[in-house]
Write a structure and sequence with these properties.
The chain has 217 residues and is α/β, with parallel strands linked by helices. Helix content is 41%, strand content 14%. The protein has two domains: 53 residues, Rossmann fold, CATH 3.40.50; 145 residues, Rossmann fold, CATH 3.40.50.1100.
């Protein structure tokens, strides 16, 4: 959208197993797509864009290394959560993809109350949850500060997808699987504590997954 408004030519490199809705939306905005093999995951897509930049074929808008990513959440999302809970927030649970949200929100919240617990949702072994990733060491985002996360909770693909359906069916919240994975992790935290104010962010939309089989047809 931003590239279309600004008149910039944009190339999106993404694994070929991305949902049809994601691919069609990006093409609708005029982006050129390069689809990388599904078994290479986002890691191979990142390798491809790095090689393209090295070959002089453009500049990478690196969401994994741009400090503006966590800064946006440190300056925006974190203060919003603090205000909306009147400073009563005790736990923040977040998906970990680029890690910008969890890093930035944590920096702000812990500057207000260092006892606030920051919990990251990570995929259980064998699970593929878009937006929730366990990066190999060589691919860990440069913006990620591990000291900002107190603990992680593993989420299975089955739990994330079922929670996405429950959110829509029971709460009227049409979120995606990464949002649902964070919700599931937040529910696990809720079973462990009493009198807590636990917050997660619906960071993804369900309409991106209509063709994936997550939601009933």
């Amino acid at each position: 959208m931003a590239a279309a408004i600004s008149g910039y030519p944009l190339v999106i490199v993404i694994p070929e197993d991305a949902s049809t809705e994601r691919i069609q939306t990006m093409r609708a905005y005029g982006a050129d797509l390069v689809l990388t093999p599904a078994d290479g995951g986002m890691e191979e897509a990142r390798d491809v864009v790095t090689r393209m930049e090295r070959e002089g074929r453009g500049r990478v808008m690196d969401q994994f290394g741009n400090p503006d990513n966590p800064r946006a959440h440190q300056d925006g999302t974190g203060p919003e959560l603090w205000r909306q809970t009147d400073g009563r927030i005790t736990h923040f649970v977040s998906a970990m993809g680029t890690t910008g949200t969890i890093t930035g929100v944590s920096r702000f919240l812990k500057s207000r109350n260092s006892s606030i617990q920051i919990v990251g949702a990570q995929p259980a072994e064998g699970s593929k949850i878009p937006g929730i990733r366990a990066w190999p060491p060589e691919y860990v985002p440069k913006i990620f500060d591990p000291s900002t996360v107190d603990r992680t909770v593993e989420v299975t693909q089955t739990d994330a997808e079922e929670t996405a359906r429950r959110l829509a069916r029971e709460e009227g919240i049409f979120g995606g699987v990464s949002a649902a994975g964070a919700c599931w992790a937040a529910l696990q935290v809720a079973h462990e504590v009493e009198g807590a104010t636990i917050v997660f962010v619906v960071c993804d939309r369900g309409d991106r997954y209509l063709s994936s089989g997550v939601f009933p047809s």
